């Protein structure tokens, strides 16, 4: 992230990233590099790829434990020297009441430099869950409200709230496959033991909307970076 930002800063160019909230281990490193190397983020746009919705279809409140807006501020924005930080209007989140904002913004900014991501056990990217759509139809899905799959909710409950499925929202809002796949580069990071099987399907399986990460095979500049445990046994 910092290398690309510094490169663009030297060239007087804007930097546009699509980023996930979690995992969060990279953000303390990013914050330290920015603050130590005095990297200006004033020409950087960070688009967080998803967030959770409440039962009324609104973004969960900032006081909700699932709010990714609150969490991003806690782990990232509040830690950066204010003299280096981008304006708040350049910290972008999908909004169920303003779905066209992100597609329109990306077009106005001239595209996305890098989409950073991880993927779920069912291959979801952001909240782009498995689908029976054709590859072409799925790849064109824009930023939108989605129903969260039982698989994703189960994983979230088991890793985030000690199994309390009833506390996991049923709906979310996500940057679409269209916006992610339009990025000049897609960088995916996998580090969990259960990623082994998912990595195999993403890299070597049939390209299908039934496993969204497999569509990265069709991207001209996509990479998957794996920790040793994540590829120890690629079933």
Mean pLDDT: 93
Structural class: alpha/beta
Give the CA-based shape.
Answer: globular
Q: Outline the biggest β-sheet.
A: 6 strands, parallel
The number of helical runs is 8
Distance between the termini: 31 Å
Quote the beta fraction. 15-25%
Number of strands: 9
Q: Class, according to the CATH hierarchy?
A: Alpha Beta
Strand order of the largest sheet: 4-2-1-5-8-9
Query: Which value, in Å, is the CA radius of gyration?
Result: 17 Å
Short synopsis of the structure:
This protein is of the alpha/beta class and 235 residues long.
What descriptive keywords fit this protein?
235 residues; 3-stranded antiparallel beta sheet; 17% strand; 29% helix; Rossmann fold; alpha/beta
Give a structural overview:
By secondary structure, the protein is an alpha/beta fold. It has one domain (2-226): Rossmann fold, CATH 3.40.50. It has helices at 2-10, 26-37, 68-75, 101-109, 135-139, 150-160, 177-181, 195-204; strands spanning 15-19, 44-48, 50-53, 91-92, 114-117, 144-147, 171-174, 185-190, 222-226. It has a six-stranded parallel β-sheet, sandwiched between helices. Helix 2 (26-37) links the parallel strand 1 (15-19) and strand 2 (44-48). The radius of gyration is 17 Å and the shape is globular. The two termini are 31 Å apart. The model has no long low-confidence stretch (mean pLDDT 93). This is Glucosamine-6-phosphate isomerase/6-phosphogluconolactonase. GO terms for molecular function: isomerase activity. Keywords: Isomerase.
